[in-house]
TrEMBL record:
InterPro entries: TPR-like_helical_dom_sf, TPR_rpt. It holds the Pfam family TPR_17. This is Tetratricopeptide repeat protein. SUPFAM superfamilies: TPR-like. SMART domains: TPR.
Amino acid sequence: MHGALVADGYNFDLAAELAKRHLERFRRDQDPRDLGQAEAAIEPWLRQPDPPPRALVLRASVRQSNHFFASAIDDLDRAIRAQPDNVEAWLIRANILQVQGRYLDARQSCGRLILMNTVVAGICLANVAAVSGTPEQASLLMQRLAAQIPPADPLYHWLLVSQAEMAVWMGRQEAAEQFFRKALAVNPRDAYLKAAWADFLLDRKRPKEVLALLAGDIRNDNLLLRLALAEKQSGLNEDLARHVEDLASRFAASAERGDRVHLREEAIFNLKLLDDPEKALSLAEADWQVQKEVADCRILMEAAVAARQPARAAPAMLWLNTARLRDPELTRLQARLASLVFGARFAMLATHIDSVA
């Protein structure tokens, strides 16, 4: 396709398709060069006074992937002003706002989709509801939508992944596993899905399944991290040492580029593979300033427990109480943090009593 674009450099449809393919490859491999190439493919049209809405949406996807959320929203708003019924623009906008914890704004963007595609709007609204205080209602809505989507529809995979994650967060582990397996059968190469499934398996001490799942995915930083965690659980120290060194180099290279997209993963790396809870906590705090998802909440809480600094997990605790999730791992971390807070207060009281005595 690159050759065709060179031969016909003014074909926007060809350029947009090339940018889309680079974005898809980035989601699979997490190679930042794909983001640069995606934007470069459509750059001539972005220089126009009024860029095509599709070019703006594609650049917004690049910026979203780089966690440049404000500029991504600007692009999406420009695209929507030119094309108010642009489903993809409204959907990406809702996703960004949800990741930022701006749930009212996210629901409004989802709501704009109702007249264009009720199923897409429903999944969008359910995903927001799942992390903003009404997970039960979100689950029921997902069940109703499932009956309206044929398995051949691309939306079916998105629905299954959403249902799997929602089931985990609600403590419905058997249902979560069923949804994960169905989603993998539909799209076994989805990197986001594979990471979520690997996390599920690691929590249940099933590292051999993770090793089999991710053996061929070492190009993707997120998946290599899960592979290393599985190697640690399995006691495969030689492979683990090699992959830890590789991950350390990748995170260092990202920091040198000023790329802070993987703050969450870097925090997990420092906590669980380098045993450096203080650095992990600092990274998790920086990550929380950018995005507020369940996984971001969890690593902030885990790092605060490990560093024995429960007060620094207060933002995550507040978010979790509002979200009303029942994930067993999050519930366990809540209890650990509460115990640390109580222990610190008890120690202060004991010190005060001793000084008075």
